[in-house]
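Hi F.,

I've been meaning to write this up properly since the lab meeting, where we talked about keeping a consistent format for the predictions we share between groups. The idea is simple: the sequence comes first, exactly as it goes in, then the structure tokens exactly as they come out, then a line or two of notes. No screenshots and no reformatting. I'm using this chain as the first example so we have something concrete to point to.
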Amino acid sequence: MTDGDAISPGDAMSAGYEIAQLNIGRAVGPLDGEQLAGFMGQLDEINALAEGSPGFVWRLKSDSGNATDIKISDDPLVIVNLTVWRSVEDLFEFAYRSEHKGVFARRFEWFERWPGPNVVLWWQPVGTIPDVHDAVRRLELLSKEGPTPEAFSFKQRFPAPVAV
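Output, unedited:
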């Protein structure tokens, strides 16, 4: 499936699957430092925008209200964002067509270029909460093997599995 091929939200839901996504980044400096002030200053607003967006289901967060203090490596500058949406289209609309696009456009002010894919998508059964370690494994899979039904990107999508 390519960018031009659409998976309708109804198809994903009727199949009993939702789309999970992980994105990862390494900050250019400490999260409480001056270099990240613009990013951190918008984080609550952007998270609220996501939660109020059509198709939003869930996002990873700690008691802080975001995921910036959830560590997946020994590097304190590496942070993740893990969310679940009803469809790829809902996620795409939020990421690239909402006010989030302004944050996305400035990402290289705040984050280094990741050595490989920094976003991975996969289908999971409705009501399932993704595990951050499994999500990182899927990103590594995408990096090593390219897009597969288990780990893919916006550019090369796969349809939701067929319910048996």
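Notes:
The longest helix spans residues 37-51.
Helices lie at 9-14, 37-51, 88-97, 100-105, 107-110, 132-145.

If this format works for you, I'll send the rest the same way.

G.
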